[in-house]
């Protein structure tokens, strides 16, 4: 059913009840591909959501793997609902936007039991029409992403997806929110960097982030922090947030504390995220206090695990921004309005 072909709920229900049952294989990859094509025709300014309902393993594994990679690079939120005993939990986790986007039920009759929880989650994730999830705020948000040899090309891809997804919390269109990205290894990669305020479209921002190249090399974290401290054009009157992602000990550790302190002295709140071989004590040399809110250490995992802390980080960032600007509890200021595109499979 084309997404635009229904004017009201009753008409949609009537047509849904007339959808015939067609047996065959479980071509989940093909279904997700078609759903993404349908959502691409939707309104660019509203969130896009897929609910996948299935009772078994996909039979088009290669197509599914390719489609999962495409979807992870998009801004589409994907919820998976597994029904019965033959589901593959790992497959549902891979498809879903995050592991807490996965639901399981005993049988199809039991789906109604998760309706309230699922609808509540969907509505909460959908963004307001005119503002980001944090509400009508102004912020300068800078990412620094490690592109050294220890990260690997695959994990650098996960890091780019993470940056794209976190940035989607904010509304870039008005210019009130400025987002920048810098990658580094032995040197900072200023030629491919996104400067604060350089892009005002979420789609253009994601495209630019995904075009950033993996370089390999050493981990010169102090050099990257010093570069941002010296060269960033932070606005004086707005909150300044820096999100730093790394997986190891910097070779220039001697200059890291001073470089981080220079940023904090300028009023920059620093969130340090360490993955795999990162050292928690070194993250605390970079992060703002309190460390429990600003130093996030994911022990013994690869970069795919970074997505698991995305929601937690978004709440912490919004909390910092709102505390700086209003002193209010963010739970009382986040908008409850929503508008979204939704696709079922």
From TrEMBL:
Residues 1-118, 140-316 form the VWFA domain. Pfam families: VWA (PF00092). InterPro entries: ECM_Assembly_Org (IPR050525), VWF_A (IPR002035), vWFA_dom_sf (IPR036465). It comes from the Eukaryota. SMART domains: VWA (SM00327). This is VWFA domain-containing protein. It comes from Oikopleura dioica.
């Amino acid at each position: 059913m084309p997404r635009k072909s229904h004017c009201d709920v009753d008409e949609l229900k009537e047509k849904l009840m007339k959808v015939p049952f067609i047996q065959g294989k479980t071509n989940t990859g093909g279904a997700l591909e078609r759903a993404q094509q349908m959502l691409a025709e939707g309104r660019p300014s509203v969130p896009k959501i897929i609910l996948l309902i299935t009772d078994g393993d996909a039979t088009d594994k290669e197509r599914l793997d390719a489609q999962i990679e495409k979807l992870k690079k998009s801004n589409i939120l994907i919820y998976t609902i597994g029904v019965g005993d033959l589901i593959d939990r790992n497959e549902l986790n891979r498809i879903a936007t995050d592991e807490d986007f996965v639901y399981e039920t005993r049988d199809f009759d039991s789906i109604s039991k998760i309706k309230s929880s699922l609808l509540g989650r969907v509505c909460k994730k959908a963004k307001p029409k005119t503002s980001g999830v944090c509400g009508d705020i102004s912020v300068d948000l800078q990412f620094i992403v490690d592109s050294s040899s220890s990260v690997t090309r695959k994990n650098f891809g996960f890091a780019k997806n993470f940056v794209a997804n976190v940035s989607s919390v904010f509304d870039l269109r008005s210019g009130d929110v400025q987002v920048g990205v810098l990658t580094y290894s032995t040197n900072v990669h200023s030629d491919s960097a996104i400067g604060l305020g350089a892009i005002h479209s979420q789609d253009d921002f994601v495209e630019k982030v995904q075009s950033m190249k993996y370089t390999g090399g050493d981990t010169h974290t102090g050099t990257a922090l010093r570069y941002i401290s010296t060269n960033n054009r932070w606005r004086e009157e707005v909150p300044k947030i820096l999100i730093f992602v790394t997986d190891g000990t910097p070779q220039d550790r001697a200059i890291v504390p001073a470089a981080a302190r220079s940023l904090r002295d300028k009023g920059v709140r620093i969130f340090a995220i360490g993955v795999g071989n990162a050292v928690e004590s070194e993250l605390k040399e970079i992060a703002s206090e309190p460390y429990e809110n600003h130093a996030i250490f994911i022990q013994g995992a690869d970069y795919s695990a970074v997505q698991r802390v995305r929601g937690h980080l978004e709440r912490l960032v919004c909390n910092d921004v709102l505390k700086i600007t209003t002193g209010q509890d963010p739970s009382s200021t986040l908008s409850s309005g929503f508008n979204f595109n939704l696709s079922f499979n």
